[in-house]
Amino acid sequence: MNATATAVRVEGLAKSFGPVLALDGASLSVGTGEIYGLLGPNGAGKTTLIRSLVGLVTADRGSVEVLGRRLPDRAVLAEIGYMPQSPALYADLTVEENVRFFAAIHGLEGGRARPQIAEALQLVDLFARRRSVVATLSGGMRQRVSLACSLVHRPRLLLLDEPTVGVDPQLRAELWQRFAEMSGQGVTIVVSSHVMDEAERCRRLGLLRFGRLLAEGTADELRGLAGVTRLEDAFLALSERGR
Amino acid sequence: MSLLRTAAIARRILQGFRHDRRTLVLLFVAPVVILGLFYFLIRGGSGVPAVDVVNLDQGELGTVLASHLQASTQIAVSMTGLDQARSDLASDRVAAYILLPPNLTASASGGGLAEPEVHLEGTQPGLTQPVLAALDQSEASLLGSIGAQSGARLPTIRPRLTYLHGGAGLDTLDYFGGAFVGLVVFFLVFVVTIIAFLRERSQGTLERLMASPLRRSEIVAGYMAGFTVVAAIQAVEVALFTLYALHVHNQGSVVLVVLMTLLLALVAVNLGIFLSMFATTEFQAVQFIPLAIVPQVLLSGIVFPVSTEPGWLQAVSELLPLTYGVDGLRDVMLKGNGLTSGALLLDIGVVAAFAVALVVAATATLRRGVS
């Protein structure tokens, strides 16, 4: 497999925080344009794995290669969009000012910036609220601003840590529609989630437990592997086996 | 009112302290440090102002007055020649020199007027007052001993005061004004930066910055640039208000006052970023104020002159940026020094060096944003 076909390659990644082992030799690879879903219970290591893909975690062991570049590599970060679990925004700035700031630090300035900022705001359905100060927005709206901030610079790899928490079902469906379109345009998306109907929309799923990848495959493959008909049951059954 | 519910709140607060050991330590350590400093500053010093006494008196009165001055516990007297005394005063080695003129005994005889000359350095009230007090006491005990010896008519002793800088026309605000301009800006800029940077960390945006192509040095430089704009406006405003609305005495250039204040603000920005790395909550950051700011204020010579501190405390004072900032502002405002003055250039250089060193330190500690 060459570098253009593989967007993310993680090998034997281990990381402990004091006595807590967050990742214990996790390995996975994600193809270009794929939507890869990371499933797993709380504390399974999903967030640590996603953070390690943007160099926020220095691993104890193992290697991370992103868009053909071995991390740490600052330059490749310009092509990644990262949305953390809690909406990390400047509460005293407006929606548009936040999005423009994150565009600028990813190198998006000047004439190109304006239409892309507008597009990102429309995508999360906040164009009309662009002049609102973030502190005045509800939790779900902040989540959407955060998403706009992570994709305004049109990254080739989008890392989303539970992106639709607090977002209503209708907008969630629209967002996943857009994720699918972006994937069609060659954008690779790694997304962690608890929501099973979201998992169904991923091309491939990885089941993370105790810092290791227990199972990997399409939703159908995972159901087949567990011998059940519902993805949620597969998730529970496979998690039990990992013990 | 339910005792149970009230007790639940009290218990919750104590549990919070138990989990936040650092707050607990600061809560008990800070007062000891601050009160201990007061002790050493007020009581612990060998620290009394140095004074040269030049006795040119041909009679015996000068010798007697000089020996009373030497016996004073409020000043440390050396007997010198006039040239030595003048150069000591010009170079800040003494707070004053007292000249007992050749005709002192002669003019005092028969209830006449004796006029010792007191040449004060004049920029630090904390040094001027002990000199005048020591002279008063020496005069009183001198007159007492003369009166006890004989029924002779007592002379009148009236010292003639001259100030190398400043003078009798200056009041307390004139002396402290310069130091306060620096202190106010330093303090406010520090507090605003440490809170702003801590919020960057606690709201998670610092993590986002770390996940972007930004360099750490770009983050620190950006912070510095942003706060410098605000600090510059504040420095100009505070300096102009002090000089033109409060009419605080300024002997030197307004531009230099603003420049010195701005340099202090730069140090404060970077000190704020640097120290925010050691706090995890805004609560803890606020506690850096008594620990980082109060000792600096006490040791910077604003109230207690550095030269009267015990030796080891002087060494600490010389490691603090505010000491040089305050000294520089006094150089300009009270002495009228300009950029040709070596002392002022040293102050400016040291404060600038602190700013640079703290930029480097702040950049280095930013790594802690990544786990």
Beta percentage of chain B is 5-15%
**Low-confidence runs of chain A:** none
| Backbone CA Rg of chain A | 18 Å
**Could you tell me how far the N terminus lies from the C terminus of chain B, measured between alpha carbons in angstroms?**
47 Å
Distance between the termini of chain A: 32 Å
Profile the largest sheet of chain A. Answer: 6 strands, mixed
* Main sheet overview of chain B: 5 strands, mixed
Unreliable spans of chain B: none
What class would the helix/strand composition of chain B place it in? alpha/beta
* Shape, per Cα inertia axes of chain B: elongated
Order of helices and strands of chain A: EEEHEEEHHHEHEHEEHH
Structure notes:
The complex is a heterodimer of chains A (243) and B (371). Chain A is of the alpha/beta class and 243 residues long. Chain A has one domain: Rossmann fold. Chain A contains eight helices and ten strands. Chain A has helices at residues 46-52, 95-105, 113-123, 139-151, 169-184, 196-200, 219-226, 231-241; strands at 6-17, 20-31, 35-39, 61-66, 69-70, 80-83, 157-161, 188-192, 204-209, 212-217. In chain A, strands 6-7-8-3-9-10 form a six-stranded mixed β-sheet, with helices on both faces. In chain A, strands 2-1-4-5 form a four-stranded antiparallel β-sheet, with helices on one face. In chain A, helix 2 crosses helix 3 (113-123). The longest helix of chain A is centred in the last third of the chain and has 16 residues, at 169-184. Chain A starts with 5 loop residues before the first strand and ends with a helix. In chain A, 42% of the residues are buried. By secondary structure, chain B is of the alpha/beta class. A five-stranded mixed β-sheet of chain B has the order 2-1-3-5-7, sandwiched between helices. In chain B, helix 10 (254-276) packs parallel to helix 14. The two termini of chain B are 47 Å apart. Classes of the chains: A alpha/beta (243), B alpha/beta (371). The A-B interface holds A 17, 51, 54-58, 74-75, 77-78, 80, 82, 84, 86-91, 102, 105-107, 149 and B 203-205, 207-215, 370-371.
